[in-house]
Amino acid sequence: MTERIVEMRGIRKEFPGVVALDGVDFHIGRGEIHALMGENGAGKSTLIKILTGMYRADSGAVSLDGKTVEPRSVFHMQSLGLSTIYQEISLVPNMSACQNIALAREKTGFLRKIDWREARGRARRALSRLGLDIDLDRPVNRFSAAEQQMVAIARALSFDCKVVVMDEPTSSLNEGESAALFTLIRSLRGQGVTFLFVSHKLREVFELCDAVTVLRDGRLVGRRPVRELDQYALVSMMIGRDASEVIRGRRAPRSEARAKTVCSLEGVKGGARVKGLTFDIHEGEILGLAGLLGSGRTETLRMLFGADRPDSGVIRVDGVETRFAMPRDAIDRHFAFCPEDRKLDGVIPNMSVSDNIAVTSIRELSWKGVVSRSRKLALAREYIKRLNVKAASPLQTIKTMSGGNQQKAILARWLATRPRLLLLDEPTRGIDVGAKAEILGLIRSLAAGGLSVLMVSSEWDELIQTCDRILVYRDGTNVASLSGADMTEDAVIAAIAGGH
Ligand SMILES: Nc1ncnc2c1ncn2[C@@H]1O[C@H](COP(=O)(O)OP(=O)(O)OP(=O)(O)O)[C@@H](O)[C@H]1O
Ligand SMILES: [Mg+2]
After folding, report:
1. Residues 82 and 226 in one domain
2. Of 79, 300, 305, 406, which has the most beta carbons under 10 Å away?
3. Is the pLDDT assigned to residue 325 strictly greater than 70?
């Protein structure tokens, strides 16, 4: 038995125009929960994809459990006891949860015919280990992002695996679900399973992990036991300079609320989740929506954007009752919506990053139906710069960019429309700590210039730091409004739970 269950040496990987990994040494101790950290584009996902057989390294060596291996494919590595959950969840959308869980095993070729009774049992056991009770027969594209993530985790756990590799597993989970996942990870560690874990959430790393490896620009910065680090030291390692500008305190409260109401909701009901919303959004206000998964926050944004229609109630824009038939109507009124699931509603994978940014501004960039290429590139360049999007060139195909940089490009797309109301659903998901502070700072300065923002986030500290006011949702209604000194995590939790 070796102490190092995973070892990678001198790993190099080049893509056109970028060296993603430049001679990286990496190892994980047996039974360890190991965090891989670094800024967006540092090379974390690439390292994981090499370990798990999805990419081939240009050079370097990999060993698993003391034996040199050449990771050939995900299934090859799975057969050796290494299971993976990628950053971009790769479930088959119109197959059921049960089929998805069974699928991975089917491809190993051990089973020609799937034994569905056995598969169902296995799927149900895997889900119940996660403490989940979900409908096994529902196609996974009808699940929320969090539920899909859970199915992906259950699929990985349905194998007898020695090492579980997870690229940002909690980015679409709320705090309760993350806590459930961590309990599970700890108990599996007790049974000897080793975990490799990518996260941008510092808190999780300190709560869960034993050791951390930091990458920067494709190079190894260092490997440390977590107990030897504090937030400041870790962030400094990640960004390569003093971290004090990133780890900032809470901002000063806004001096005065502007009176003008941009948009108001009165008794709005719709779909299965929204059961009665009444509130106003003011000019220059950053209004946060806090609540549990399924409490109707995303549905609120969708209704305000004309993606769904309310069943009853009134939405007013500038005091006038308004019904958007479709998102185009909302865009014409300078509403913008940056959706939660960039893979499903956001990124156009085979287009360049500049086309992805410009796609919402095509009308403004065209004359007599012809899009000006130079104006399009100029617009894309401007926002690539403003949001610090890391791309080899504005023409890089977006699907080859790192996860966090894709997320930034989607945000850029909507900021480029110069909205007056910006609807944000989990805007900093997958974005590194340094960039997160920059982006929230940018949103605050746009709000100071009059932009109104309605923002959903499951990270309550992010809402508290960014918003002027937080509405708390419970069961599809807004039950509390917190501002100023009342915006604390305890107050949010109490309001969600229904106590005070
Ligand atoms: N298939 C690909 N083709 C071209 N370039 C790629 C490809 N995959 C990754 N890259 C580039 O390699 C670099 C590292 O990307 P990687 O996805 O590993 O970053 P990351 O650390 O996972 O970032 P994030 O935190 O944003 O997910 C980036 O510059 C990215 O654009
Ligand atoms: Mg990544």
Report:
1. yes
2. 300
3. yes
pTM of the predicted protein model: 0.81
Query: Looking at 67-81, 88-102, 207-221, 331-345, which range is the least confident one?
Result: 88-102
Adjacent-strand bridge partners of 492: none
The residue among 371, 402, 417 that closes a domain is 417
The predicted-structure confidence for 84-108, as pLDDT tens digits, reads as follows 876 665 677 777 877 777 766 554 4
Q: Residue 308: which pLDDT band, with cuts at 50, 70 and 90? A: very high
- Structurally, the chain folds into a number of domains equal to 3
215 CA closest ligand 1 atom index: 21
- Which protein residue has the closest C-alpha to ligand 1 atom 7? 400
The CATH number for 450's domain is 3.40.50.300
Of 208, 239, 270, the residue that ends a domain is 239
| pLDDT tens-digit map of 469-488 | 999 998 889 999 999 889 99
Measured CA to CA, the distance from residue 442 to residue 286 in angstroms comes to 12
Residue 395 C-alpha to ligand 2 middle, in angstroms? 20
pLDDT at 87: 60
Q: Mean of the per-residue pLDDT values for the chain?
A: 86
**Ligand that comes closest to the CA of residue 238:** 1
Distance CA 115, CA 109 (A): 13
For residue 342, is it within any domain? Answer: no
Distance 40 CA to ligand 2 centre (A): 7
Q: Read off the pLDDT of each residue in 331-353 and give the average, rounded to a whole number.
A: 84
Measuring from each residue's beta carbon to the nearest atom of ligand 1, which residues come in under 6 Å?
15, 18, 20, 38, 40-46, 87, 390, 400-405, 432
Residues lining ion ligand 2 (Cβ < 5 A) are 45, 87, 402-403
Contacts 24+ apart (CB under 8 A), 438-446: 438/387, 438/388, 439/387, 439/408, 439/411, 440/465, 440/466, 442/386, 442/387, 443/286, 444/251, 444/286, 446/415, 446/422
273 and 323 co-located in one domain: yes
pLDDT value of position 500:
44
Rounded distance between C-alpha atoms, residue 48 and residue 62, angstroms: 11
Whether 327 and 383 map to the same domain: the answer is no
Task: Supply the residue whose CA is at minimum distance from atom 18 of ligand 1.
Answer: 43
